[in-house]
Design a protein that fits this description.
There is one protein chain. This protein is α/β, with parallel strands linked by helices. It has a domain at 105-196. It has six helices and nine strands. It has helices at 8-24, 40-48, 64-74, 118-130, 152-164, 173-182, and strands at residues 29-34, 52-58, 83-84, 103-109, 131-141, 143-144, 171-172, 185-193, 197-204. The strands form two sheets. Strands 3-2-1-4-5-9-8 form a seven-stranded mixed sheet, sandwiched between helices. Strand 2 (52-58), helix 3 and strand 3 (83-84) form a beta-alpha-beta unit. The longest helix has 17 residues, at 8-24.
Length: 206
Amino acid sequence: MTTTAHSTAADRNKQPILEVLLSVLPAHGTALEIAAGTGQHAAWFAAALPGWAWQPTDTDESALPSIAAWTAQAGLANVCPPLLLDVTAPRWPAQGAAFAQPFDAIYCANMLHIAPWAVCAGLMQGAARHLATDGVLVTYGPYLEDDVATAPGNLSFDQSLRARNPAWGIRRLEDVKAEAQRAGLALRDRHAMPANNLLLVFARST
């Protein structure tokens, strides 16, 4: 029996994120989760969104057993087996058959600040390739905003990230929006979240 990995942060933020998702997403659809990590979000959201088929993925193959275990533990039939996916690759997913059908939503939490900047471009370009016409890309995490004072906690977090890896760091929202625009996406909604995080909703530019 595979042991489920656990993230305290995921446990803390899953319900606030779900409440926004319930207001953003329709009753039915197909979702692709990028950087699913432990699998806690996949299990929580899929249980609350029974009309959605949920496809979790992660770039770390060692994360896949935990994602599958959370799904099995919850007894969910609307979550697909987790797949290996590198957002910077030109083909999604990394193994097996390429995704043949577009997704109504692509969800990605807490990835951009613990990855090189090229990952942001890969996420936006991949979302543009795989989103349905009316689909949305939902990202969650900390961001730096030019017209909003940065919380001291986020400043410290940013410094600690850059000390661990110079290629990491909390991203400027304007830079993320520009990367999205280059891929044909535009920021549609900004939701302030607990602990100085943001939930952003991107859609195809009109």
